[in-house]
Write a structure and sequence with these properties.
alpha+beta, 4 strands
């Protein structure tokens, strides 16, 4: 596994690149058959909180450089876009129900 770090807007981006699983039915891998996958660890420099986000499984790459670059782009999109609003629950939790008024 290979890691590269870069600061961005108060966050430390660490791209983790690793060898992807071989395609179905293949046992041995020739050098051209190797595919790489990537994950990103984003650490807030001020609070030291970190989270890991994996690039989608359908995205595997032929070389380490492509995987690292895609991981950095993915992480910058995560940092720049606001978090999606959470949907309210369709029904309340069992203990949160109000007692019937009588």
């Amino acid at each position: 596994m290979e890691a590269a770090q870069a600061p961005y807007k108060g966050f430390l981006i660490e791209a983790l690149v690793y060898l992807a699983a071989p395609p179905e039915g293949k046992t041995g891998l020739r050098p051209l058959d190797k595919r790489y996958a990537a994950s990103v660890r984003i650490t807030n420099v001020e609070t030291n909180e970190s989270r890991i986000s994996r690039l989608p499984r359908r995205k595997d790459f032929a070389c380490v450089g492509d995987a690292r670059r895609a991981a950095e782009i993915h992480s910058r999109k995560l940092i720049d876009s606001p978090p999606a609003p959470r949907k309210p629950r369709a029904r309340p939790h069992k203990g949160d129900e109000a007692p019937p008024a009588s």
